[in-house]
Design brief:
Blueprint lengths: L32 H12 L3 E2 H4 L5 H6 L4 E4 L3 E2 L9 E2 L9 H12 L3 E6 L10 H14 L4 E5 L9 H6 L5 E3 L9 H4 L5 H14 L4 E8 L5 H13 L4 E6 L16 H13 L4 E4 L9 H20 L1
Parallel strand pairs: 2-5, 3-4, 5-6, 6-7, 7-8, 8-9, 9-10
Antiparallel strand pairs: 1-2
Length: 313
C-alpha cells in the first residue's frame, strides 16, 4: 500500500528561522544490548511501537530498560495532526492476531507495566475499541502480573467505544489533549478539545478507581495563561496525572517550533499543576506521555493511598 505524504498543505506554516536545539534536549543515540533485543523482539513479532513511529527522543533510554509503548491497529492513521510523525492514509484491515502477539511480547519482556496506544481509526465503527479490549484481555491471560495503561484516540462520534474499553478494566486510562484549545485548528484539526475533555471525564465516571491521565506539548506558541486554564479544565474532569513536554518538529513539513521552553518554566508548570490538585505531574523538556510510565504508576498508587488516608483521618 502506498503511504500518504504528510501535510503538504502545512508548507506555508514552516518557519524560515531554524531554532537551535538547546543542550537540555540533546540525547545519546540508542546502542545498548537491551535496545537491540527489544528491537529484534518487535520485529520478530511484527509489532509497531510508537517509540519508533513518533521518533521519540527517549527511545534509547526506554528500550535499554526494556520499556516500550506498543502501537496497535496498524501504523497508518486516518487523521493528519500537524505535530505527528505517524503516516496518514488509508489503513490496512485489522489484524485479529495482533493482540496475541502484543501479549506474547509483554510476557517475553517480563514487563511489570505496559502502555498500549494506537493510531486513529475513524474508518472503524468502534474506532478500534474492541482491539484495545482484546489486547488487554490477552495480556491478562499471558502476563497476569502486568499492569496496563492505555493511551487512546478520542473515538469521536463513536458511541459506546469507551464502554467497550472500560469493561476490560485498564489500570490507567490516558488520552492526550496535546495542546491548548486555541491551537486545535492548527495542531489537531480532526479533533475537538471538549470532546477529549469529555472522554476523560466519562472514563472516570465509568470507573472511578481507574487512574486517568492526559498530556500536552508546549512550544507551539501557547501562553502560560492558556496552559494554566487547561490544567483547570483537566482537574474539572477529575484527571489524576498530567504530563507536559517540549514539542519537537519531526520534519520541515510539520508545524514549526515557536519556542524551546526552559527547564525553569517546566518547573513552574509542575508547581502550579500540583497546586491545582493533580496526584502526579511530569513536566520537563523530554517528558513524553509514556516516559517512565512504570515508575510513575507506582507513584500514583502511593499518592492515592496518602490521599485516602488523609481523607479518613
Amino acid at each position: 500500500m502506498t503511504k500518504t505524504m504528510r501535510h503538504p498543505e502545512k508548507q506555508k506554516n514552516i518557519s524560515t528561522v531554524s531554532l537551535k536545539k538547546p543542550e537540555w534536549l540533546k540525547v545519546r543515540a540508542p546502542s545498548s544490548n537491551n535496545w537491540k533485543k527489544v528491537k529484534n523482539l518487535m520485529e520478530s513479532k511484527k509489532l509497531v511501537t510508537v517509540c519508533e513511529e513518533a521518533a521519540c527522543p527517549n527511545i534509547g533510554e526506554c528500550w535499554s530498560k526494556r520499556h516500550a509503548t506498543m502501537m496497535i491497529l496498524g501504523e497508518i492513521c486516518t487523521r493528519a495532526c500537524a505535530f505527528c510523525n505517524i503516516t496518514t492514509g488509508v489503513p490496512n484491515a485489522i489484524d485479529v492476531f495482533e493482540p496475541v502477539r502484543v501479549a506474547e511480547a509483554v510476557r517475553d519482556m517480563e514487563l511489570e507495566h505496559v502502555v498500549i496506544t494506537s493510531v486513529d481509526r475513524d474508518d472503524l465503527i468502534d474506532g478500534g475499541a474492541a482491539q484495545f479490549a482484546n489486547t488487554i484481555h490477552e495480556i491478562r491471560k499471558k502476563s497476569s502480573y502486568t499492569t496496563i495503561e492505555i493511551l487512546t484516540p478520542d473515538f469521536r462520534n463513536k458511541s459506546h467505544s469507551l464502554d467497550i474499553i472500560m469493561e476490560s478494566k485498564p489500570d490507567v486510562f490516558n488520552h492526550n489533549l496535546e495542546t491548548v484549545p486555541g491551537l486545535y485548528n492548527d495542531i489537531r484539526p480532526g479533533a475537538r478539545y471538549f470532546t477529549s475533555l469529555k472522554l476523560l471525564d466519562d472514563a472516570k465516571n465509568i470507573m472511578p478507581d481507574v487512574f486517568t491521565k492526559s498530556g500536552i506539548m508546549v512550544g507551539f506558541g501557547e501562553t502560560k495563561k492558556e496552559v494554566l486554564q487547561l490544567m483547570d479544565d483537566l482537574r474539572a474532569a477529575n484527571v489524576d496525572f498530567l504530563t507536559i513536554g517540549q514539542y519537537l518538529q519531526p520534519t520541515p513539513k510539520h508545524f514549526p517550533i515557536k519556542e524551546f521552553i526552559s527547564p525553569d518554566t517546566f518547573e513552574y508548570y509542575k508547581k502550579y499543576a500540583y497546586g491545582k490538585g493533580f496526584l502526579m505531574v511530569s513536566s520537563s523538556p523530554l517528558t513524553r506521555s509514556s516516559y517512565h510510565a512504570s515508575e510513575d504508576f507506582q507513584k500514583l498508587k502511593n499518592e492515592r493511598i496518602k490521599l485516602d488516608l488523609k481523607k479518613s483521618s
